[in-house]
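Protocol step 6 of 9: fold each sequence in the batch and record its structure tokens directly after the sequence line. For illustration, a two-sequence batch is reproduced in full.

Sequence one:
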Amino acid sequence: MLQACRWSTSPLLYPIVVLAIATGMRKGEIVMLRWPQINFERALITLQLTKNDELRSVPLTGRAFDLLKTLSKGKRSDTDLVFPSNSGEKPLEIAKAWTTAVKKAGVADFRFHDLRHTAASYLAQGGATGLDIAAVLGHKTLAMVKRYAHLSESRVRQVVTDMNQRTLGDR
């Protein structure tokens, strides 16, 4: 999927998708992102307009940080949007580029919002707690985390095995 986005005729699709996976941000939060919301010194994105109307800070690291830092060097003077349309007045529309990338990647029934689920699942598989995931995604309840963080049977088995090894000395 990432390779198909990298090869897209829309040069901003790849950084948008990487940002979605790296942060769990919603599509609207990403395309409406403005340069003043990004603090490169603190490696932090501040979201004022979230779905639940609460301020949320999102850590910015790794490839997503590097891509945004590179984009900042060529930012346009006519807009403060990070991902502007050609006119600069509105955010970039990525629907067509996204649909093309999904087809080229051969992924069936995959929506942009599924990247948010992907981020939550990667966080869970990496050992993040439900509270950690809720904080990253801006969820108010752990029930929402459960809807987003899809753990494989093998991951759940590994978590239980690890716990048994630590507490009961199992092998």
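Sequence two, same batch, same settings:
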Amino acid sequence: MKKALIALVTLLCSIAGMAQSKVEMIKDFKSKFVARRNVEVYLPAAYFTDPKAKFPVLYMQDGQNVFNTETAMNKSAWEADATADKLIGRKSIKPVIIVAIWNSPLRVNEYFPEKAAENFTTDDRTTIARMQKSMGVKETELLGNEYLKFLVTELKPFIDKKYRTLTDASNTALAGSSMGALISLYAICEYPDTFGQAACLSTHWPILMDNSNMAPSLAIKKYVFEHLPAPAKHRLYFDYGTATLDQYYEIHQKYIDNILKQKGYTEKENWVTRKFDKAPHLEMAWRERFDQVLTFLFVSNVKPGQKIK
């Protein structure tokens, strides 16, 4: 009997050791607010080895670029699942569920912080419309509020029902790059009781494609100043490179950093801003530093008030 019990325990341990993470596809998720789209869900190995455990969740924008090189822009994905596997395996971060939300042809419209547009001047609106036309965007209606309604009232409840999640704000984070960073920041500002953390990589502060006309970006900065969530219960990660489109971001990010300080955020505690010299505006660059993003959001061994390296 004792030998049989030992054999059973050994087998269970072996099975647990063989457990692997998994990425599931939810095809054509329907919404009343925005166009239907695919959603992919990364489940860590611990999801299968500990059937009673619940997990924090990270919602990521531009989801087709997050896991799969076949669907990613320029066939270059963030490979977020591989990075998460590595960090979880080292016990550097808590096991986390990652929800990758694919974008739509109206990406620019959906990812724009809609209420910030209320700060636009007439010249700003003309400039933005001209930019959209040059990018082949036929629709000019901004859909940031509708996108957030989809995320908060449709997708998150679905994920929380289907998977074993920790549903509170402190365990619910967002991440995105470029315009995806803007909508992630907008989400935590508009729904501070739903989202406790946001990671904004290469945030597209200029709105336009360079700094030759910085007026439209002031609308974003004014919105951030007026709506940034309270620092006591929120944490923010920002970064930027210095090559290609990222070369225009530093002056804007420093402005935002000053707002964070004014609003009571403490650098390396509930906020970090990181500069990556020579890093371009590409998935490749975001992949290379995604480990730092996950470590900031889900670090497993940092006590309250302790500095983040």
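Proceed to step 7 once all outputs are recorded. Observation for sequence two: The chain is about 40% helix and 15% strand.
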